[in-house]
Amino acid sequence: ARRVPLDTMATAYAPLGVPEGVYNHGPRKKQDAVWSWVLLAVVVATAAGGVLAYQNQSESPDAAAMRSGGACSAPSFHFDDVLAANEARFRKQAMRGDGPSASLGSRTVGASENAASAKADPSAPFDADAFQRGAVPWLAVALGASFFLGLAMLWLFRQCAHTMVWTVVYAKVGVMAALAVAFLAMGSLIPAIVFALLTALTAFCFYLWTDELNLVASLLSVSTQGLRDNPHIITTTVGLSFSSLVYIVPAVFAMTFAFMNGSVAVSSRAVAKSSGACADFAGDAVDCCAWQVDTWVPFYSALATVSFIWVTSLALETRMYVIGGTMCQWYFAPAGTTEFKGLVGDSLRNALGPSFGTIAFGSFVLTMVEIGKAAAERMRRDEDNRGNILVCLVTTCLECVYAIIEYISKFATLQAAMTGEAFCDAAADVTDLLSRNFLAAYGTYAFPGMILQGTAFVLAGGFGVATWLLSYATFIVSVDVNAGLYAALVGVLAGVVAFVVLMFFVMIMLNVVDAVFLCYAMDKDANQIHHREFHAVFEEVNQKAAPRGAVVQNPSGNRMYAAHV
Q: Is the previous residue joined to 555 through a cis bond, with omega within 30 degrees of 0?
């Protein structure tokens, strides 16, 4: 048999005509235009429904009348008959074993009210006004400082990626070891043993993956070069996020107004009335009357929810598209190019122009995935399905299907950003492209998400601790009591704000990594090398995942691996 070098494998798949991986500067043809109109119809319908809901909202009933039953005591409500029907329904459910187990006499309404009043502590020393006055300035500063912290995180990964990666690894192992020691010091032997075993297992796994983690560090380091040369990716992403709020905030108000359209009805939970209030089947105090929305409200709520998720996904897909188009132009720029001005704007124009329908289609797919995930989660949490192995298997399989759809959709959007294809065409082409260029090796790149998220968590935790210490110095001067409590709360909130902002940068960085990988796959598929440093990193990863041995060609022309015996 004739031995064929491994690098010649791609020759068999070399594309004809214009090589793949060259950015389509246009003019581009409009793709998936029908989905633009579908999205517009959904948005207009949601807005129109919100306007009608605002104009026709019903008068809000008095809370005291709702509790006492005065709002639904008219003869037309058949108050006593409804209470009797509610009690009969709950008794029937209790006999089947799927209703409340407590009886009517187990607890009186008055006892419930006394218990509720006992839980309130009017002498609580927490002063909300004092805390708000002191916390708001610190949280405003934390929000602004978090953006600079995110930029610092990107700079650190560009300058000392290996140190950052291994710091996160050591921190993970160290935290688990500290928890094991803490449980042992408290006398909890079993949790201490569990965490000790987990610490040892985690350390051993990281030891086995030492080479892969070093490669991930190199991958993150070289990927930040593209982000450094195109800083407007960050500003454009921030603008897209705020632009989506222009629709999301009114949509939330529209849903709120929709639920104000309805009428008063006897509560479906109340079964008896006593001393100016009602009780449910378990004896707990409930309002005698309830608000019943109009029949059209659930349908409008479903429509508004779909539009809400769709627009949110649209913003995320647009960000992915812009990053993909920008990184493709940067990656395939001629050697020695140092000026990359206008790349982000060109990608954004394509996103909002000829490829807007493609982005709308991709975001609709992700919207359906999110709705499917929510439905599967409700099915899993349903009390009737507890212990049902079939439900567990179905939801697990669905999670795998949803993950695959999200994975392909991500690269389809990147492919469309680079080539201007329709969504389905881009999905088919990118799947074929990645399958020809070591798709299995991309499993190694699950590490960047873990490393970046771990880094964000560590930095946010440190930021929260620093804010706690600094704010304590101001609270101790401005308030007489609870300075430590107020400072601790400010530290926690500042840490949460920092983590949210840092995750924003993490998602941008992960999108850049995905785009660079796809550009590398296109480059390799066309037998070209545009960035030797990228090829060096990716080739090292791919060689680890490739089968051992050489590629041989038998007399019939078929190729296969020949491993040493």
A: no
Q: HSE on the CB side for 514, CA within 13 Å?
A: 27
d(CA 22, CA 18): 8
What radius of gyration do the chain's Cα atoms show? 30
What would the two tokens of residue 195 be?
A: 């965490």
- Give dist(CA 125, CA 480) in Å, integer: 11
DSSP state of 446: G
Look up residue 283 and give its two tokens: 């004896």
For the whole prediction, is pTM greater than 0.70? Answer: yes
How far apart CA 281 and CA 288 sit, in angstroms, is 13
End-to-end CA distance of the chain: 16
pLDDT single digits (tens) 252-263:
999 989 988 988
Provide, for the chain, the percentages of residues in helix, strand and coil under a 3-state DSSP scheme, each rounded to the nearest 5.
75, 5, 20
- In terms of pLDDT, which residue wins out, 8 or 304? 304
Residue 118 pLDDT > 50? no
Distances (CA, A) of 165 to 210, 220, 225, 411, 517: 11, 9, 17, 25, 19
* CA 29 – CA 31 distance, rounded (Å): 6
Contacts of 365 (CB under 8 A, 6+ apart): 405, 409, 423
CB atoms within 10 A of CB 457: 19
Q: pLDDT band for 534, please (50, 70, 90 cuts).
A: low
Strands 559-562 and 262-266: unpaired
Q: How far apart are CA 563 and CA 37, in angstroms?
A: 56
The pLDDT score that the predictor gives to residue 111 is 42
Residue 501: name the closest of 447, 466, 464 by CA.
Answer: 464
Q: Which pLDDT tens digit goes with each residue over 145-185?
A: 998 998 888 888 888 888 888 888 888 899 889 999 998 88
Helical (H) or strand (E) element with 550: strand 550-553
Encoded amino acid at 216, one letter: V
* Cα distance between residue 50 and residue 53, in whole Å: 5
Report whether 321 contacts 413 (CB < 8 A): yes
Cα dihedral sign, 562-563-564-565: negative
Per the model's pLDDT, the better-predicted residue between 551 and 509 turns out to be 509
Higher-pLDDT residue of 29 and 526 is 29
Rounded distance, CA 295 to CA 279, Å?
27
- Burial code (b: 16+ CB inside 10 Å, e: under 16) for 205-219 equals ebeeeeebbebbbbb
What are the backbone dihedrals phi and psi of residue 367, each rounded to the nearest 5 degrees, phi first? -65, -45
